[in-house]
Structures are given as structure tokens and as C-alpha cells.
Design brief:
It contains no helices and 12 strands. It is mainly beta. Strand 4 and strand 5 form a beta hairpin.
Length: about 190
């Protein structure tokens, strides 16, 4: 059940507007052909603990990118599961003397109380925006075709003192309630 795979991907981008990758890194307008290679390891899906990893590198627009990702998953029981991902990207544009390193970390938890009720949470940190995002979702399924979701989303500034004026601790907050009901029509 273990799997090691390799791939090479060829990309084409036609940028009609420059876009920013980080605070000090911008990709200018132009046509870009670039390739990157990838090597990945996937552990058996039936294992209780599954460490998966990948490494990739190659051209990226008019620069280079090197990436590493580690994604462990742990099924504690049929009621509780954890998934995580840590990804690091090093991007360099030597001709423009621009470079940066980004870190992205994610943790997902799924807790199933019964076949009708469950809670899942998702926490993500992004070093480029210095942001932490949190999502918690409660699901209640009283019967087939009906679902009630209560969702809380929140985004935090993890380095609020780097901005002038100082950014608020909470950047965004939302509480959502969603109910779906499937109708059966006797046609």
C-alpha cells in the first residue's frame, strides 16, 4: 500500500497584469513557460497513522521554486481523526533580486459523536499574510436529506504590530447557520 510517485509538470501563464506573491515580490506582465518536478510518498490509507510527504522544485515564472510538504494523518478511533500539513516554499527571482520563504501550517480535527452529529475544526497559519484562520463546524442530521450546520469562522492577525497603524487582533469573524431540506416531488 505504500506509494512513491514522480511527476513533471509543464506550465504556461499569460499574465496581463502583474501580481504580488508577497509584500516585496511581484511577477511582471508576460508569457511564461516553466516546468517543475515532484517526488511524493503516500502511506497506506488503512494505517492508523499515515505520514505523507512530497518535495518539488523547478522553474516558477521567471524564477525558481523549491517546496517541501509533510502531511501526517492519525485516525485515533472511528470517532476521532486528525490531519495536518506543513508546507514550506522557497521562491527566488534572481534577475530582480527578489525572494521569500513562505510557511503554511494546517490542522484539521474531525469528531463524530453519532451518525447524526459531528464537529470538525480547521486551523491554518500563513506566514505571508501573518494570518491565523479558524473554522469550526457543527453538523446535525436529523434524517436523510436534512442537515443543520452551525459554522464559526474567524481570522486573526498573528503579527499585528508589524503594521502602522497597529492591526486589530481579530480581522474577520462570522457565525453562519445553514439548514438544508430536500423535497421529494411526486411526479
Amino acid at each position: 500500500g505504500h506509494r512513491i510517485s514522480t511527476s513533471i509538470r509543464r506550465n504556461f501563464e499569460d499574465l496581463t497584469r502583474p501580481f504580488s506573491l508577497s509584500e516585496n515580490t511581484t511577477v511582471p506582465i508576460g508569457f511564461y513557460w516553466f516546468s517543475e518536478g515532484r517526488l511524493s510518498y503516500t502511506s497506506p490509507s488503512g494505517d492508523l497513522f499515515r505520514p505523507n510527504a512530497s518535495v518539488s522544485g523547478g522553474r516558477f515564472f521567471d524564477g525558481t521554486r523549491f517546496s517541501f510538504s509533510f502531511s501526517p494523518a492519525w485516525s485515533v478511533s472511528r470517532h476521532l481523526r486528525f490531519n495536518g500539513t506543513y508546507e514550506i516554499n522557497r521562491i527566488e527571482f534572481d534577475d530582480r533580486s527578489q525572494q521569500f520563504t513562505s510557511h503554511l501550517a494546517r490542522v484539521r480535527t474531525e469528531l463524530t459523536f453519532t451518525t447524526k452529529t459531528s464537529v470538525s475544526s480547521f486551523l491554518q497559519y500563513n506566514s505571508i499574510g501573518d494570518l491565523v484562520a479558524l473554522n469550526i463546524r457543527f453538523r446535525y442530521n436529523p434524517r436523510e436529506g436534512n442537515d443543520l450546520y452551525i459554522v464559526w469562522n474567524e481570522t486573526f492577525n498573528s503579527n499585528r504590530f508589524s503594521l502602522d497603524p497597529v492591526a486589530p487582533f481579530n480581522q474577520e469573524r462570522a457565525l453562519l447557520v445553514k439548514y438544508s431540506h430536500t423535497l421529494t416531488l411526486g411526479l
